[in-house]
Amino acid sequence: MSKPGDFDAVRKDIAAQLHRPGYDDGSAGPVFVRLAWHSSGTYDAESDTGGSNGAGMRYEAEGGDPANAGLQHGRAFLEPIKEKHPWITYSDLWTLAGVVAIKELGGPDIPWKGGRTDLVDDSKVPPRGRLPDGAQGADHLRFIFYRMGFNDQEIVALAGGHNLGRCHGDRSGFEGPWVTNPTRFSNSFFKLLLQLDWQPRKLANGMSQFVYVDPDAAEDEEPLMMLPTDMALKTDEAFAPWVKKYAEDKDLFFDHFSKAFAKLIELGIQRDEKGVVINTDNKLGGYVSAPKKSNVATGPPKPKGPLRPRL
Ligand code: HEM
């Protein structure tokens, strides 16, 4: 048990949890990044609801959203840390895990402040359908990200999160990694998006994505993939110049990604002039951490069809 508020101790323990031989590409980092993003990406600026405060994914209403399929692994990987530092809220732990993972996997420093509170019941869990659907295009991306308060440049920067990790047939229904080294944060995603010859492919489950089949690859080698939403970044007039800039200039991408991700995890968090969170979502008030939920990755029952979120 660390001293309450000793976030550096938590950071160290998160970093030590990343190495996972036998899980995906050997790191829990990508799923931590997605957990941080999905816990924050429910924000709606107009109604000032959703966002990372609350950690609503502990409840079936949000955790069982098909858009969040697979994130139970990330949450379960973080349980030993919650146990060791019970004073930290889940909402702080999940956002911090994303920030630590990005840094440890070679990405930029991302400013992070603690103080989020956890909801005490599911009455303020945001409605489903607020997260993006990879099967769609540029209009959909704008609809989703403008709602949170992002602009076109920030959308492209954030989409660079796909330098990490992979799609899983049993989670989203899409299949494969975006880059050849999915546990190293870089600007490869943008380079490959522009350079490779992406071909549409219909999967056995009926989903459509884009793949690059390397003619020199061994037969059992997994092709790289792009989602329809990723491809929209290079065909849309306003998104495309940013894809080009980020492909050419890794430092610029890291700088813009860091700023956009820091903004993402602060959406809906209200702080006073000293930086203390003043959100009143948690009726108990103050810095209140929710009790532990589970040590194991439990999720919604497996749906029969593809897990694509229906909007
Ligand atoms: C632009 C709209 C976005 C769409 C449509 C989208 C869609 C997806 C989909 C379908 C997956 C595969 C999930 C699975 O099967 O496990 C995925 C994974 C991932 N996404 Fe996104 N995403 C978007 C934005 C972002 C953003 C903003 C970030 C972070 C900055 C991000 C980070 C990730 C990561 C790290 C993974 C890999 C997770 C893993 O390996 O388990 N995505 N995304």
From TrEMBL:
Enzyme class per UniProt: oxidoreductase
Domain Plant heme peroxidase family profile: 25-311
CDD domains hit by this protein: ascorbate_peroxidase
The entry's keywords: Heme, Iron, Metal-binding, Oxidoreductase, Peroxidase
GO molecular function: heme binding; metal ion binding; peroxidase activity
A biological-process GO annotation: hydrogen peroxide catabolic process
Ribosomal protein listed as a keyword: no
SUPFAM superfamilies per the UniProt record, alphabetical: Heme-dependent peroxidases
InterPro entries: Ccp1-like (IPR044831), Haem_peroxidase (IPR002016), Haem_peroxidase_sf (IPR010255), Peroxidase_I (IPR002207), Peroxidases_AS (IPR019794)
Region entry Disordered, spans: 287-311
Pfam families, A to Z: peroxidase
Highest taxon in the source lineage: Eukaryota
EC number per UniProt: 1.11.1.-
Role played: Destroys radicals which are normally produced within the cells and which are toxic to biological systems.
Family as reported in the entry's similarity comment: Belongs to the peroxidase family. Cytochrome c peroxidase subfamily.
The protein's name: Peroxidase
